[in-house]
Amino acid sequence: MTINEIRQKYLLFMEKRGHSIIPSSSLVPEGDATTLFTSAGMQPMMPYLLGQKHPLGTRLVDSQKCFRSGDIDEIGDNRHTTFFEMLGNWSLGDYFKDKQLEWFFTFLTKKDEGLGLDPKKLFITVFGGGSGVGKDIESIAIWQDLFKKVGLTAKEGERIFAYQSNKNWWSRAGVPENMPPGEPGGPDSEVFFDFGENRLLHEKSPFKNEKCHPNCECGRFLEIGNSVFMQYIKNEDGSLVELPRKNIDFGGGLTRLEAVTNSEPDMFKISSLYPLIQEIEKISGKSYSDVINQPSMRVIADHLTAATFLIKDGVFPTNKAQGYVLRRLLRRAAVKMYFLTGNLEILEKMAPISSLVCQFYSPIYFEIKKDIPVIFETIRVEIKKFGFSLDKGIKELQKNPHIDGKTAFDLYQNYGFPIEITTEILSQMDIKIDTNQFETEFEKHKELSRTASVGMFKGGLEDNSKTVTAYHTVTHLLHSALRQILGNHIGQKGSNLTAQRLRFDFSHPEKLTDGELLQVEELINKTIAEKQAVTREEMPKEKAIKEGAMAFFGQKYPDIVSVYTIGNKNNPFSKEICGGPHVTNTEELAKIKIVKQESLGAGTRRLYLQFV
Ligand code: SER
Hints:
3 domains, alpha+beta, 4-stranded antiparallel beta sheet, Threonyl-tRNA Synthetase, Chain A, domain 2
């Protein structure tokens, strides 16, 4: 079974059990300044998990695109990827533990409706208790019953294992102690697949002195799904209280499910990634079966997949935030290709790999004709630019076999080498440097790039959310104001909100004049001063579009959508399909100012707005 088949089977399985299928959200969260990327299926579901009514009901199912930038350095083994799809089913105060565990077990083990895995190969973990919450004996009993029905005795310590909150508690912030007030979370139960004794890598792994168990990292067991019983919320006083509605948040790695269905522990041999590995073999003339080549080839395949999806979702290579991460992915892939082959010209052949990604995932995520050229060109240009720097940088390094730390660091500044890449190059060329000096510079930089890539979590989930919501409403005002002043060719290409500012990308062929900027600003401020109501309605997608609601270009919407209208319903200032949240009246907004304008090339412009 390929991932396309498994995705389809799962969606239908849950649809048959009363779930509405919803499309994946963007990899770049909208209206959420707390994270750069969507890294779990539950992220876009947050408003609904916290109580907002979902237009499609209380049972939902999806396959969500996810990107985990924190995993970049782990790529190279047989199981980690930065991009993946997470299958998810959601109960918004509807069913709870018994149905959830039964359905997932049925999906895993039944051949006709599901994957037909051998139940003997499945191992279970549950929450062992802590932070004032008891051990999850309920789940243990449910699991024992399910295994009994297939003729297996599931004893604790043999098939079912209880762990503490560092393993079997889920919230966006991790263990209960790290959850900020207002954050939901709960115990979870994970299912692991056992690749078996014959593949027992344990003896060769760094864990050989420990007893092997599902959460051991030796490679024998692979986690394939996590049922979160989201039943608590963190109180202001630090305690956990029960949520009025108990939710289920289930997440399962699609790639991993294909791997276990085919008893293939190497994720890079599955349907979406193996064609890329084969193409890389062809381009480089190197063989994947030679283990020495595997880490580099895996990095190239993973990073180009992630880059392809990020560009599709509106990210451009830049030096900041999402753009910086994309740049780092592309440059790292290029460096790996260079070291795999020793040939700089070969970098030119990398961009076409992205077309294989588009082809594999079309028509769900890509429109071949429209997307391939844009993604191809973005990758080609970025890798080409970097190729020149790489060439110069390598020559520089070859001239100086005893390079000092400062010079090594300067490579970053002079040739645009992200420092992580410089470190990798240096170790691969076996060049000794003055580590102290290098470390100082490196630490300084690491701090900077950390804030750029993951440091946006801020712990400010609740503090900033009001301002971010306000900026979100301004996004709609801006989108509409731009169309009214510059014309209806304006389409939103992306947006990003923090508590400090709003960033908005849109299609427009030329620089806005000062006069135009002023007009846009004045129109928005006038609407804010007019105290216009912001209202939300649910309606069928077709109706919304017929009524002229603006939709995000290229985005897939469910059949029933929520629509936000600003101003008089009969002649609104703005009407957009959007998940929210928003303020309820523009009087809640401060006056705004356009503080910066940038060009992103290819007919796309970027504006920054702030409240004054
Ligand atoms: N939120 C859980 C996870 O990401 C399950 O969806 O693992």
